[in-house]
Structures are given as structure tokens and as C-alpha cells.
Amino acid sequence: MGDPFGRWSYAPSRGEYDDGTPLRPSNSFARLTGKSIYKQRKDYGQSLLKLQSDFQHHVEHLLTMRLERDLRSAEDCLGRLKGLEEQGRIWGQDVILEVKDQELVLRDVESK
Fold first, then answer.
1. CA-CA distance, 11 to 20, in Å (whole number)?
2. 41: closest CA among 33, 29, 52?
């Protein structure tokens, strides 16, 4: 039995653990080539792009605004939205938010 604190100098010889089979390298640690690494990364990138292009989510669209002189930030738009809400001039529209050809698209649920 070994010392749990590493104070003894006794180390078991290979013969104590040797079951007679020669040591062989494992296939799970095969050396990868530059070409195989490139192909793995390319395939992974393509799978990520495919996932992004299939993105769809049901949302409630409230408002579309152009950023102009008095609207320069998201905070400005939220202020305008709150003002319209107080006046009862906001109602939601059910839409599908999706990515199509690397663009965000809002598609009306009812008219498709």
C-alpha cells in the first residue's frame, strides 16, 4: 500500500501490474491532420448556419419606428411606445419572427 502523502519512495514495478499484453496506442487518440481539422470546423460552421437559417419564433409585434431626429436610441423608442400606450394607441399583432437569407423577417400569422 502506498503512502497517501507521497513520503515513501516505493514505486511498484511494471511486473506487478503487467497482465502480459503489450501496450498499444488507443484509436480514440489518433493524431488529426490539418485537413481533417479544417473539414470538422467547416462542417460545424455549416451546421450552425443551418440552425440559424431555420430560426422561427412566435412574437407579438407592437411598433415599428424609424430612427430620426427625435428618435436616436432604444430608450427614445421606449418613451414613444409608453406615450402611445397611455393614449390607447397600441395593440399587438401576432407574427412569426424568422431569419431568412440572413435577415430578420416578421411574417403575419393570419395571412402567411
1. 19
2. 33
